[in-house]
Specification:
This protein is α+β, with helices and mostly antiparallel strands. The chain has two helices and three strands, in the order βββαα. A three-stranded antiparallel β-sheet has the order 1-2-3, with no helix packed on it. β2 and β3 form a beta hairpin. α1 (about 30-60) runs antiparallel to α2 (about 65-90). The chain is elongated and about 70 Å long. Residues about 1-15 have low confidence and may be disordered.
Amino acid sequence: MTAISSNFRNIYINRIAGTNKKEVVCMLCNCNYNKTKLLYKLTKAVGFIEKHALHDAEKDNHPLCAEEYKELKHDLQRHIEKLRAAIEGLSREGKFG
C-alpha cells in the first residue's frame, strides 16, 4: 500500500494481489476530515469544561469564571450540534467520504 498526497486527507493505492492493477481508496476529503476532527475536539473541550474547569471555578469561589465556562460550554454545544447535523446530512446523501 502506498500513500499519496492530494486534496484528500488519506488516499492509499492498493495493488491488487497477483496483478498490476491498482485500486484507489479515499478515506475522507479534507473538508469532511476537518468536520470530524473539529467535532471530536469540541466534544473533548466540553467534557473538560464539565469535569474540571466549571468544578474548579465553583470550588475556588470564582463565580465570573464559572459563568464564562457555562457560556462557553453552551456555545460549543451549539457548534457541535451544527457539525453533527452537517456530517449526518452528508452521510445520508452518500457524500461523506
